Amino acid sequence: MIDKEDLARLTMSGHISSENLLSFLKECDIISADDVRSVEIMKKKTAVQKRHNHAISKGTGKDKRWFSRVDDPLTGKSKRIAASSEEEMYEKLYDFYDRCSHTSPQKDPAQSSPIQVSHKIRKPYEEMTLREIYDDWLKYKTKTSSRTNNIRRIDTDYKKFYLEEPLSGEILDTPLVCLKPMDVKLWSCSLIKKYHLTKKQYGNAMVILRQVLDFLMEQDIIKSNPARMIHIDQGLFRREEKKPAETQIFFPDELRKVLELAYLLAEEKQDEAYLAIPMATYTGLRPAECLALSFEDFDQKSNTLYVHQSLAIEDKKLPDGTWATSNYSIQEYLKKNAKPRTICIPDKCFDLLEQIRRITAKKGIIRPHLFDVKTPNNLERKLYRICDKLGIRRRSPHKLRKTYISTLLNNHMDADFARTQAGHSTLQTTLNCYTYATTRNDELVKQLNQFVGA
To answer: Which domain holds residue 68?
Structure first.
């Protein structure tokens, strides 16, 4: 009696056609149809095992199917496949590699089996380290993110806190499926201490490891994310001291002079972009939101403004790992994917619209948007120029927003109204980060002398 394994090896040797040999043995009643089928399965299994570099396993729990992964020969990306039995799994894998042979260049036309045609062998994600999987994850992140400037910041943090950081060697080169919460916690604490990180800075650095592990969870490669299971003692983080008001807002007398000069320069230079300064002052918008405004966003009947767009950066990573020169465009996007909001605005905003229309009409310009600037730096340069002319401290356009919110609260406007105008999700953000005294210290001392102990 011929052993089936020997028969399978014989048919794989290439010395005799497997079809002819099996047909002859069956006709001679040496083997049965079931034996023929078994030999074919063995042959395919042997061929697959020579090529396949992923684990093949049976599911646990309720799902008793068989699972494995295959690498796309064109993209190199790994994908999961399932089968109802081990035999069906090997059938699927054999067919997959057979198809690959017809799409891959064959170096040796005399090859006896398409299953032997090779393409670049790539590690499965189950075996990959953070260093190895990072580029795949970043491409995925780029495709699923609404703004690429966030991707560029992530890539910068990766180089600083991972690639160029000696403390991160083990995190970079340990297979991700082997990472334990304690490994992540010890590394995190050492990083916080070395760089004296604030909670926000730590969060930015950890985004990479957290989301790469989330990426593996989405593919059912790991069941839990160790980076999300750790707790860091809040005392480790560097506390951020609130900066003095004179560096964060414009005092009323300064703001009045800034606005007067902005109006004047807009007319003298016939440059409507100067009017973005009073528009930001009267609305409290973020600079990128202000520069993306269109005329149809304003409703004079209800004195409201619909905020739904921003001037956002479009970054592109080049094949050599560097980033192309940044370009900006108006996008249907607000910070942190916030929902569009409708805010109340004063009558002065509508006077500004008319002035912008007059200036652009004189230049023969018709466009839907109020301003046409290449980058937000255009607005910053104009505000700095005004500050220099007035001989006052330079403050960025974002400080106009802080001035607006502080003015509302210091004039006893409802705190939640100030929050919604600003577009903050929590009142804590409004009060902690955007509220400053709009009165100088010497005037505050006079008020103290007047009211305290009187």
So the answer is: 4-122
Packing angle between helix 199-218 and helix 130-144, nearest 10 degrees? 90
- Amino acid present at 357: R
Total of domains in the chain:
3
- C-alpha 435/C-alpha 281 separation (Å) is 15
CA angle 346, 308, 260 (to 5 degrees): 35
Strands (E), 178-315: 298-299, 304-307, 310-314
The secondary structure of residue 229, as a DSSP letter, is: S
The DSSP H or E segment spanning 80 is strand 78-83
Q: Same domain, yes or no, for 322 and 411?
A: yes
- Any idea what the CATH number is for the domain that residue 150 is in? 1.10.150.130
H/E element, 253: helix 252-269
pLDDT digits (tens, 9 = 90+) for 284-334: 999 999 999 999 999 999 999 999 999 988 777 777 777 777 788 898 888
Q: What is the pLDDT of residues 96-148, one digit of tens each?
A: 877 776 554 444 444 444 444 334 456 788 889 999 999 999 989 988 876 77
Tokens of 363: 């230049």
Confirm if 386 and 277 have CB atoms less than 8 A apart. Answer: yes
Is 169 in the same domain as 87? no
Q: How far is the C-alpha of 345 from the C-alpha of 285, rounded, in Å?
A: 11
Question: Same structural domain for residues 373 and 290?
Answer: yes
CA distances, 181 to each of 81, 98, 191, 225 (Å) = 29, 42, 15, 8
- Tell me which DSSP letter residue 363 carries: T
Q: Quote the tokens at residue 53.
A: 């570099």
> Are residues 209 and 341 both part of a single domain?
no
**Tens of pLDDT along 232-288?**
999 999 998 889 999 999 999 999 999 999 999 999 999 999 999 999 999 999 999
DSSP string across 154-172 = HHHHHIIIIIT-GGGHHHH
117-152 per-residue burial string, b: 16 or more CB within 10 A, e: under 16: bbbeebeebbebbbbbbbebbbebbbeeeebbebbb
- End-of-domain residue from the set 75, 97, 122: 122
Give the total residue count for the chain. 454
